[in-house]
């Protein structure tokens, strides 16, 4: 069942659990994500990057069809829409949510460009995620982990002025692999949650952040956790074992990768308490 991301996140907010947002790369990973959601009776957010497929409208249409056939609620979110064109392509392709990532720009530019997209998306019944503060790269964690963190009062003002459905916050996570140990600013998160009222919050850079940190973040008011690197690494680890056998079964290549990817995703679905939370119309 295809739903908006706002519907999934508002329920998660009200009921106090988190939702995984795995990045998909192919039909195999899309099917894997939907199967995990169905097996665990969980709502699910599928994150799609604009660059991941040479024919995004086709790719999104395929995800829409599989989601519509599924009994569990699924939202399709364009992840990191960096340009106006990317976001419009996501909307036109059939995403039920778009992320407007203007976090590298000034506050004023971020505000103005996010507002522009909110106006379009709201008219079409599509949810909008924006980012304030900037979640950087794990490879540059010494600098990115402590700079451009989200200011609570500014976040509240940004939500009010833009009308976004949810906000990605920078509290010490980073994209990709961490160089060093992640340190999450939970005090800041508490202040953001307090300042932002009922608006659901998003955490990018879930991979490698650790179960304890992520479970605590969800308990503290994060409703969506983006996961990309760690799921792929889990798939790769299964493949490393698989290739140790010189007579490996060539037909089992993708299922082997998918097993690692799916098991890791299922682990987080349970950790965030989203299992059993699917609903029907
Ligand atoms: Zn991200």
Automatic annotation (TrEMBL):
Pfam families: F_bP_aldolase. InterPro entries: Aldolase_TIM, Class_II_FBP_aldolase, FBA_II. Coiled coil: none annotated. CDD domains: TBP_aldolase_IIB. It comes from the Bacteria. Its cofactor is Zn(2+). This is Class II fructose-bisphosphate aldolase. It comes from Laedolimicola intestinihominis.
